[in-house]
Write a structure and sequence with these properties.
Belongs to the cation transport ATPase (P-type) (TC 3.A.3) family. Type IIA subfamily. The chain is an alpha+beta fold. Helix content is 49%, strand content 18%. It contains 28 helices and 26 strands.
Length: 810
């Protein structure tokens, strides 16, 4: 209700009321209130991140107090409480682990690391994370504001959402329009006094002119254009939470994207298996068990034996949920379960398992005894030293790890090697069955999307909490990282923000790994300080501060946290990076649409102002061609609907060719088109038609025309401005292509708007009470002939100007 444009409209409403134009004053107030309420609703929804952060904590927690297990509200936890954790729990406070049994914790929302960690006794786990496997007892060391989660919340609240480029440009435009309106209004008031008008009449005349020059329809037109862009983005799986983000996306010059879930599927998958009988390559998609294997038959048979041993040691499974397969447990274990199903390996009968060794951070393996054999799976460097194998296995591990794979070794031995919960291992005691290479595979459409971004002049960086080697492999695989690209970790970033921005501002791609929330925040600020319009993607709680700091925060809708979605300006419903490209395309189209209807509005103002300037410069010798009420009728009655139709113009086919064409909403090119070409043409045609009709009724310069002659001439000038504006709306559909190339029928809402406007024009000129109130009359047939010819002349002038510029692209 109080930003610059709203304040200007408030002043216009007060002046309109003071000038006796009460209906106009009411209409302006309605516009202010409707837009204010709409903006408030959008901002209210976008600023609920703190509430979402509180929602991350569970309502009830299992604790041991006085030796008894009880369930208490999470808000009642205090330091030194003993908390019980088991698979499926969300951690309720920062905890120090006391006793641990095969515990795995998903910390991706805090760290960005895609693989669950396996903390040992004495390690810490943090509020907001998930237990995906095992159980533990832990001691509370921090609650509420003292938790790591709360620290991220404070970062989120400290980050200031920057004003959008559209907002800044509109403020600049409004200042210019306000200055022009006041200057013209005051000048005409002075001229009126010099010409003999009474002070009251001169004041009301000046006020009327000032109000007429205020573009009352601008704000609803901008709002509708953004809303239409948001609607189109929703069809492209991008949900807009803040309307001005629609246009900001079009101005984006730098995208900082997460890796997991954005560039990749966020589903661990076995890609390769090395066996002593040869390599096997797996084919499939995500957690869907349907798939196949490529390799020699003996190698595939060996891979099946390795898979059978692996699934005996794990608990994670892929389960069907509605219409898709999802992970239940550790994603790496789920990937092994999917591998076994794709190779046709049957599930293990749990009754055959007689001993079990759980994974710990010290041993880094798990094992079972099934059917009298010991089966083991774990880190290669923890198992290969006990396997009877040559150097080929070690070479396979190095090769897989070097290509960004996560590597597991699977081995077996006859007999029972488990005693007192531990394996009795010795060199050459295990038979290596295989080495498994896993990967979170990249999305299939990311490469094309990244190519489009580069063609559009948008630079890209991967900013992730994951390991540098893994992120680099994915970045190169999808084409994000070129030969001159940069790979750097968070602790290697320069301390100075200026140097940081210079380091990251490069064309060939950047990978920043092992970043903290504070790092992402600094990256957004440093790039913005270099003049970039930054879009930052994220899905975790740790991403919330950077999402708020960036010009456009983009959250993942399918896999992201509520906090990220509540903080972001844009939510990708399908998590696809390609949806960002679609959103940028629509954002650029929206920016172009705003320029289109600004050109249309400003050209009309020139034509409306010309009669007052001619009257003033001639000292009253040239009568006023149109009055203040006629100007208002043109602004509100005949201009708004076509402008709205321009605001929903579809994007052109070349909108993503090269960098954003315009950095400023209003530049010299737009001002020349609006004032020096289209507006000037309309003004000249209207004044010529007015003077020709007056002359036909015997008027000469300095004479006072009869009331009937002035009404017909004024109605003719009104018709000329209206019809040339109808032609102008077609001219404004493109800054480069002629109306004959763009076509007259490709924007159906525009045709409907013009049909309504023609009816309104007939009412304004043909209904006697309305025409008398406005001050015009029904034009003669010569007047209509002038008006129709004027519309054609305007299109020809616009076409000639575009052809001279050589603009043949839309």
């Amino acid at each position: 209700m109080t930003h610059l444009f709203a304040l200007m409209l408030w002043v216009a409403a007060v002046l309109a009321f003071a000038g006796g134009l009460a209906p106009l004053a009411v209409a302006i107030v309605v516009i202010i209130v409707l837009n204010g309420v709409f903006a408030f609703a959008q901002e209210y929804r976008a600023d609920r991140a703190a509430e979402r952060l509180r929602d991350l904590l569970p309502a009830k927690v299992q604790v041991i107090r006085d030796g008894l297990v009880s369930s208490v509200d999470a808000t009642q936890l205090v330091r030194d409480d003993l908390v019980l954790l088991c698979a499926g729990d969300r951690v309720s406070a920062d905890l120090r682990l006391d006793t641990v049994h095969a515990l795995a914790v998903d910390e991706s929302m805090l760290t960005g690391e895609s693989v669950p960690v396996r903390p040992a006794a004495g390690d810490q786990v943090y509020a907001g994370t998930f237990v995906v496997q095992g159980e533990a007892e832990a001691i509370v060391i921090a609650v509420a504001g003292g938790t790591r989660l709360a620290g991220i919340q404070s970062l989120t609240e400290s980050a200031q959402r920057p004003a959008s480029p559209l907002t800044l440009e509109l403020h600049r435009l409004i200042r210019v329009i306000a200055a022009i309106a006041v200057a013209v209004g005051v000048s005409l008031t002075v001229v009126s006094l010099l010409l003999g008008l009474r002070l009251t009449e001169a004041f009301l005349f000046g006020v009327g002119v000032m109000v007429a020059l205020v573009p009352e329809g601008l704000l609803p037109t901008v709002t509708l254009s953004l809303a239409r862009g948001a609607q189109r983005m929703a069809h492209g799986n991008a949900l807009v939470r803040r309307l001005d983000a629609v246009e900001t996306l079009g101005a984006t010059t730098y995208v900082c994207t997460d890796k997991t879930g954005t560039l990749t599927m966020n589903q661990m998958e076995v890609q390769e298996i090395w066996t002593p009988r040869g390599p096997v390559t797996m084919n499939g998609h995500g957690y869907d068990p349907q798939g196949s294997a490529d390799g020699e038959p003996v190698a595939i048979e060996a891979a099946a034996r390795a898979a059978a041993a692996a699934i005996a040691c794990i608990r994670g499974r892929a389960v069907r949920s509605k219409d898709r397969w999802v992970a239940e447990g550790d994603p790496m274990e789920v990937a092994l379960d999917v591998l076994a199903r794709r190779l046709g390996v049957p599930a293990v009968d749990p009754d055959t398992i007689t001993h079990r060794v759980t994974f710990t951070s010290e041993t880094r393996y798990s094992a079972v005894v099934a059917g009298g054999n010991t089966l083991v799976i774990g880190a290669p460097d923890a198992l290969l030293q006990y396997c009877d194998t040559d150097g080929a296995a070690a070479a396979a591990v190095v090769d897989l790890a070097g290509r960004g794979r996560r590597v597991l070794a699977v081995a077996a031995a006859p007999g029972v090697l488990v005693h007192d919960g531990l394996l009795e291992l010795a060199p050459n005691r295990l038979n290596l069955l295989g080495v498994v290479g896993l990967e979170d595979p990249p999305r299939t459409d990311v490469h094309a999307a990244l190519t489009t971004c580069r063609e559009a002049g948008v630079r890209i960086a991967v900013v992730t909490g994951d390991h540098a080697a893994t992120a680099e492999v994915i970045a190169r695989e999808v084409g994000l990282l070129g030969p001159g690209g940069l790979v750097v970790t968070g602790n290697e970033l320069p301390a100075d923000d200026e140097h940081l921005g210079e380091l990251l501002d490069r064309d060939d791609g950047v990978v920043v790994a092992r970043v903290t929330p504070a790092d992402k925040l600094r990256i957004a600020r440093a790039l913005r300080a270099r003049g970039h319009v930054v879009a930052m993607t994220g899905d975790g709680v740790n991403d919330a501060p950077a999402l708020r700091e960036a010009d456009v925060g983009v959250a993942m809708g399918a896999s992201g946290s509520d906090v990220a979605r509540a903080t972001a300006d844009l939510v990708l419903l399908d998590d696809h990076f390609a949806s960002i490209v679609t959103a940028i395309r629509l954002g650029r189209a929206t920016f172009s649409n705003v320029r289109r209807f600004l050109t249309y509005h400003l050209a009309d103002n020139v034509a409306e102002l010309a009669p007052f300037v001619a009257w003033a410069l001639s000292g009253g010798s040239i009568p006023l061609a149109i009055g203040v009420l006629q100007v208002l009728a043109l602004d509100i009655g005949t201009d708004v609907l076509p402008a709205l139709a321009l605001g929903i113009e579809r994007p052109g086919p070349r909108v993503l060719d090269g960098p954003a064409r315009h950095h400023r909403l209003v530049d010299r090119g737009l001002l020349f088109r609006a004032f020096g070409l289209l507006g000037l043409t309309e003004a000249v045609l209207a004044m010529v038609a007015f003077l020709l009709i007056l002359s036909g009724h015997g008027w000469h310069f300095g004479a006072q025309p009869s009331g009937a002659a002035l009404a017909v001439a004024s109605g003719t000038a009104f018709a000329v401005i209206a019809l040339t504006q109808y032609a102008n709306v077609f001219a404004c559909r493109s800054e480069r292509s002629t109306v004959f190339k763009v076509g007259f029928t490709t924007n159906r809402p525009l045709l409907l708007a013009l049909s309504i406007e023609v009816v309104l024009l007939m009412i304004f000129l043909g209904v006697p009470p309305v025409a008398h109130l406005l001050g015009g009359g029904w034009p003669s047939y010569q007047g209509w002939l002038y008006a129709g010819s004027a519309a054609i002349v305007l299109l020809l002038v616009d076409t000639a100007a575009k052809l001279l510029r050589g603009g043949v692209r839309r």
